[in-house]
Amino acid sequence: MKKVFIVIGVLVAAFVAVIGGSWLGTTGARGQGEEVIAAIRDNNDAALGSMMSKELKEKVEPAKLLRMARGWGLGEAAKVTWQKWSIGTGGAELAGTVVRKDGKEQPLDMTLIKQEQEWKLLKISTEMADVVTDPLALSIPEPDALVAMVAQVTRDVGLGAREGSLKALHASMARVAQTSLTIQEVDAAFAQILEQRIDVSPATELQPVFDPAAIIDPDGRLVAEGHYPSRPAQVNFRYVFLRENDQWRLVSLNVQTAKVEEDARR
Are the beta carbons of 105 and 129 closer than 8 angstroms? Predict the structure, then answer.
């Protein structure tokens, strides 16, 4: 009987050790996850970079991830609460809620992996509290409003061509776009328009042709695509908007001019 008791005691001790080790492991991961949010809140790219995994750094620089995360609303974080956590072969999976300084809440998911005996950030995701992304809760603007939205973006591109920078356009974009993309990055994407001073704003005197019709896509984004039938070159556009703080705000755009071959009989 004594021998059996000793065996059982060893098994119980081993079980407690496994559970205890798992709990301690998740405690460290959860603490590191909170430090990640603290670095984002404090706008500290050096601290954030020190907690990023090698794999994540290969995809995005710490300064850019910081801008993106702050654009998601995590820069306003006041408190992080973890509701679920686990450790497996893929690392530590954390799921919780961020309470912002304005009282709004948004979900938070992280994956951390062990590198150099420390927990490092591999993935981070959230849903922005200020943005409506449920397609069923959104509707396409009235035709006049949609035309006005498209015209304003096109005029901002034209203004940028005249000034040599799309800084005014950048300032009008959704917060997530402003923080994810610098003015310099937007200017670089439209270098041809800026360098050649292609002012597309006069085209807004015409009625745009939407082809295909504007839609709310599965991600809750308003996509307006078409062209202005200007001559000798028409202005083709594709503008994507997010519903942010009860307004449609630009998140991405593509603007090009294309020469139109006139009918030879005319």
Answer: yes
